Amino acid sequence: MASAELLSIEVCVGVAPREVRTVTLRLPAGSTLAVALHEAGVWQWPGMPLPDQAAEQGWSVGVWGRKEAVGHVLRDGDRVELVRPLKVDPKEARRVRYRKQGEKLPKGYHRPKDRSETPAG
User: Fold this and answer.
1) Cα(2)–Cα(16) distance, integer angstroms
2) Of the four, 86, 91, 120, 121, which is 20 to 30 A from 55 by CA?
3) Rounded to whole angstroms, how far apart are CA atoms 25 and 105?
4) What is the CA radius of gyration of the chain?
């Protein structure tokens, strides 16, 4: 790949629960994660930390779901992801949901109906 070629990069940022912002960029070959985040302008968005504070606040950056250092050199078609820190441990959230909805029965089994509500025959 010649150095004059441009890479097509997609930058995705999880700014809030169930809210992802996506920016598509054309960057020169040899660009890094840090360059992509800067060019996308994510640090100027409302609610975003400053670049030097992002790691301290628990934000992480990666390519295609794999955590990478900000100096990682990008390839054509890469998807850069900046994700916010988790507020709740996923395992604990699953336990709470399980307790709240009760035990699931295997497929084909049904809970017995409450017989106190049916009239006696």
Assistant:
1) 38
2) 91
3) 49
4) 23
What does the alpha-carbon distance between residue 14 and residue 89 come to, in Å, rounded to a whole number? Answer: 17
Q: Read off the pTM.
A: 0.64
Write the CA distances from 76 to 10, 31, 57, 64, 93, integer angstroms. 10, 10, 30, 12, 37
Give me the domains of the chain, ranges plus CATH numbers. 6-101 (3.10.20.30)
Question: Would you mind telling me the total number of residues written for the chain in this entry?
Answer: 121
List alpha helices for the chain, DSSP H: 33-40, 51-54, 90-101
Burial of residue 19 (CB within 10 Å: 0-12, 13-18, 19+) is exposed
Render the burial of 77-111: b for 16+ CB within 10 Å, e for the rest: ebebbbbbeeeeeeeeeeeeeeeeeeeeeeeeeee
Q: What are the pLDDT digits (tens) for 53-90?
A: 777 777 788 899 888 888 889 999 999 988 887 777 77
CA–CA distance, 97 with 68 (Å, rounded to integer)? 32
